[in-house]
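Bump. Still looking for MAPEG family protein structure tokens.
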Amino acid sequence: MHSEILKPMVALIAWTLLMLLWTMATRLPAMKAAGVDLGRLVGSKPADADQALPREVQWKAHNYNHLMEQPTLFYAVCLIIALTGTGNGINAWIAWAYVALRIAHSIWQAMINKVSVRFALFLGSSLALVALTLHAAMAVFQTHSG
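Sorry for the wait, here they are.
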């Protein structure tokens, strides 16, 4: 039997790929409109795109980058929880909460991007990650008597 915590992991991976598609679907036309020729582009930096493209387009790319950052810890802690046999019940629910908050964060950042709301969503997901980390530590470091 598999661990339920694997489901939110797969969901967040799928969401990340959707954000990649959304980024490409908005960024490539914006690059063309800005006269950026991908065939001639050499050694650019993210700041170059921030200067050349509309901020609303870049918000999607920024969020995609964010999905490559903290969620890597989420994937690692979920794997630890799954491997210790504690990935069902409350841990699966916390993982789903993390995913829901990250998706809400993505949509908010990609469309509206008011930082105070974005920060609240990030803080909520971070607290869920802390809870999962504590549960993983308890499962890994627990001592067995007898």
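The chain has a mean pLDDT of 94.

Edit: fixed formatting.
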